[in-house]
Write a structure and sequence with these properties.
The complex is a heterodimer of chains A (115) and B (111). In chain A, 0% of the residues lie in helices and 52% in strands. By secondary structure, chain A is mainly β. In chain A, strands 2, 4, 5, 6, 9, 10 and 11 form a 7-stranded mixed beta sheet that branches. A 4-stranded antiparallel beta sheet of chain A has the order 1-3-8-7, with no helix packed on it. Classes of the chains: A mainly beta (115), B mainly beta (111).
């Protein structure tokens, strides 16, 4: 079956603009989580959605937001882009969410460059 | 979640076993040990996980010490495609729905 699909793969934006990234989870998976990866901070958790509800949020400013649709597809939005938002944004899906005994499946990521 | 300590980097010869250590001395009884890897510029890939028994799958083996304070991921016959950053993560049963990644171990498999 198809894996986690993230679009677009690459994106270049200007400071001050906003951006929307998309993630389609594995069919049947209802949990989608987002991570930011930068060389300095590594992989950091942004938020997790299940059945259109945000269940957990990482320590990021309010410029970072997300949502999930009834078909489990998710989008994340970053407003008022800053140079420091340049990163690889990764989406992960799981069936019911990451409990203690479940695995996550990651997409290939969206590489965002802010200039 | 318990913190983990991994070596920053290690080299391995192609065709040989790669043994990746992870220290998690503060692990509690309900925390699982997970291993993921990330090949350059790709998303992390799940490898294996376990609670207290040793585990094996088609990718690797996970050996957890009896006191659960450390574990070893074994790639039985490393190939060049196993070159990646390997992350050891411990997760509690509480529902936080997230993975907390450390810096991981950069493994380089050499021909």
């Amino acid at each position: 079956k198809a894996g986690v699909t993230q679009t677009p793969r690459y994106l270049i934006k200007t400071r001050g603009q906003q951006v929307t990234l998309s993630c389609s989870p594995i069919s049947g998976h209802r949990s989608v989580s987002w991570y930011q990866q930068t060389p300095g901070q590594g992989l950091q958790f942004l938020f997790e959605y299940f059945s259109e509800t945000q269940r957990n949020k990482g320590n990021f400013p309010g410029r970072f937001s997300g949502r999930q649709f009834s078909n489990s597809r998710s989008e994340m939005n970053v407003s008022t882009l800053e140079l420091g938002d340049s990163a690889l944004y990764l989406c992960a899906s799981s069936f019911l969410g990451l409990g203690a005994n479940t695995e996550a499946f990651f997409g290939q990521g969206t590489r965002l460059t802010v200039v | 979640d318990a913190k983990t300590t991994q070596p920053t980097s290690m080299d391995c010869a192609e065709g040989r076993a790669a043994n990746l250590p992870c220290n998690h001395s503060t692990i509690s009884g309900n925390e699982y040990v997970y291993w993921y890897r990330q090949i350059h510029s790709q998303g992390p890939q799940y490898i294996i996980h376990g609670l207290k028994n040793n585990e094996t799958n088609e990718m690797a083996s996970l050996i957890i010490t009896e006191d659960r304070k450390s574990s070893t991921l074994i790639l039985p016959h490393a190939t060049l495609r196993d070159t990646a950053v390997y992350y050891c993560i411990v997760r509690v049963t509480a529902n936080d729905y997230k993975l907390s990644f450390g810096a991981g171990t950069t493994v380089t498999v050499r021909a």
